[in-house]
Amino acid sequence: MPKSLFDKVWERHVVALETRERPATVFIDLHLIHEVTTPQAFTVLRERGLKVRRPDLTLATIDHSTPTLVNKDGSRPYVSAQAEKQVEMLLANTAEHGITTHGWDSPYRGIVHVMGPELGATWPGKTIVCGDSHTATHGAFGALAFGIGTTQVGHVLANQCILMRKPKSMCIWVDGELADGVSAKDVILAIIAKVGVGGGTGHVIEYRGQCFEDMDMSARMTVCNMSIEAGARAGMIAPDATTVAYFEGKVMAPADFDKAAADWLSLASDAGCTYDKEVRLDAADIKPMVTYGTHPGMAMPIDGLVPEDNAYMDMQAGTAIAGTKVDTVFIGSCTNSRIEDFRVAAKILEGKSVADSVTAVFVPGSEQVKIQAEAEGLHETFLAAGAQWREPGCSMCIGMNGDIGKPGDLIVSTSNRNFEGRQGPGVRTVLASPATAAASAVTGVITDAQTLLRSI
Amino acid sequence: MSFPPFKTLTSETLVLRMENIDTDQVIPARFLTMTSREGLGKLAFNDWRYDENGKENDHPLNSDTAKAAQILVAGHNFGCGSSREHAPWALMDYGFRAVISSEIADIFHANALKNGFLPIVIEKSAHEWLLDHPGEDVTIDLEACEVRLPKNGGTYPFKIDPFSRLCLLQGQDELDYLLGQDDAITEYEAAQ
Predict the structure, then answer these.
(1) CB neighbours (10 Å) of residue A318?
(2) Nearest-CA distance from A353 to chain B in Å?
(3) Which residues does chain B have within 8 Å of residue A295's beta carbon, measured at their own beta carbons?
(4) What is the ipTM of this complex?
(5) Nearest-angstrom CA–CA distance, A164 and A127
(6) Domain total for chain A?
(7) Could you tell me if A151 and A22 lie in one domain?
(8) What number of C-beta contacts closer than 8 Å exist between A and B?
(9) A125, A9 contact by CB (below 8 A)
(10) Which domain holds residue A105?
């Protein structure tokens, strides 16, 4: 029987088959951990007298509660003693259990979902989990990657396995080519708007079609990253020549690379495989997208009219969303903080200034992104334009480190969630692509980058 | 870790009609720096329940009846968004033992079951009745896998993974079962 990419990766990892009474036991190839969702799991390990079964398959970093500024004396302005304690606890726990950790002194430290691929730790065909719902990012490589809760983090630390029933499959086809100025972020927002925030619940999504085949790995990561915003735990794209080429020079790439690459390419879905659910979009129909409401499914084309009132967002039905006043622009998060995202932003900001009324906060996804951006001089463009260029971390996407807006502020954000209060109590979030965010920083209102570029 | 066994539960309900209640609402991210799982109940739905000065407002979650309710009835697609297990921890510490909706997000669903908190997806008509009748008594019978609504006379079946059901009935988390699979895991590792 023809198998899908998901079927193939799943089958390779089943330790004990699913029965009517029992879920399958599934082996995990890579366990990514960070400071937020692990303290209670290590506590359980300690209470039960258990060890980490496979420290060699576990990889740690600090990203959520970490300050993105540095004091003049080199110290770090943590938002609270508790945030600092959480970071210290991760470092202590991983040292105690012999887990490789990319902490403050590592040139690879970064948002966990930016770091994994950059290291070459994320391989096609792997099962990857993390106590973090945006773990689906790694599915861009053809890995089966999904978020888990802290109890399951404990299970994986102790057993390197989780218990689960095989989810259903869903294929999202996007055929054809994107128009100029339309990015991966616009594609995934258009998908979520179509299927809804619960449309993928219970399913693993495979993204197929020319639109995804044309994308580089960074763009594919942006798409897979937001699978959870459609309710799907995981999203995957079949490995191809683009995937294989990404591993050039990566420190954790397989030793016998040619053999591994041949295997990866064999993971693509077989012709004639079936899915439990299929959805089809045409790439040519997708426009730059922004959100107008308080979940990622409330997304609309940037040149459109707000379709319904939203009291929290102070949006009125029938008004144009372009032109809405912006207080802050955030470029960062595991969705859009890679070098490609900052190159797009720099192109738009080159020779221009951030509007006086706007605070622009740019946060690279990792030390590697920061190093590369600075080597290319992108930070000089940003600083000259009046934007802030900070230390890597999750920052304003979740605001756990204190990087938040003021009540009532409207933030155009390249992150993944526009839930009420996500970027601070009372803060209004508009999700957008890096291009839209950069263009809006310049004009001080929600702006399609193509319009800005044409007007100059 | 173990938790109190869940067999049957009769309680009045608290109704939150809103659809797509995400886990950032259940417990805002700024509280996730804590390193234990205790005492999160006072932070449950924090930004809905307290004013800027930290005073309780008139939200239904602050009423005495709400504080007595052990069953939460929520709008479609409850628990979407972040994977934070702090969400079921906060709901349980607040006093809830179960949530009933017409759809419950995957990761929240899995996290809830691992803490002895029962997520129930129920048929639409019963869900609508519950949404329209806040505070009514409801009986959840996990042995029979049904929800009984004495006031409307209805009995509604619900589905639950048999293994999760057993864990809840016995008050056991899955870790012991997984530890018991050590040989199979070792064999799998050796074959890689």
Answers:
(1) 9
(2) 32
(3) 20, 22, 80
(4) 0.95
(5) 13
(6) 3
(7) yes
(8) 163
(9) yes
(10) 5-164
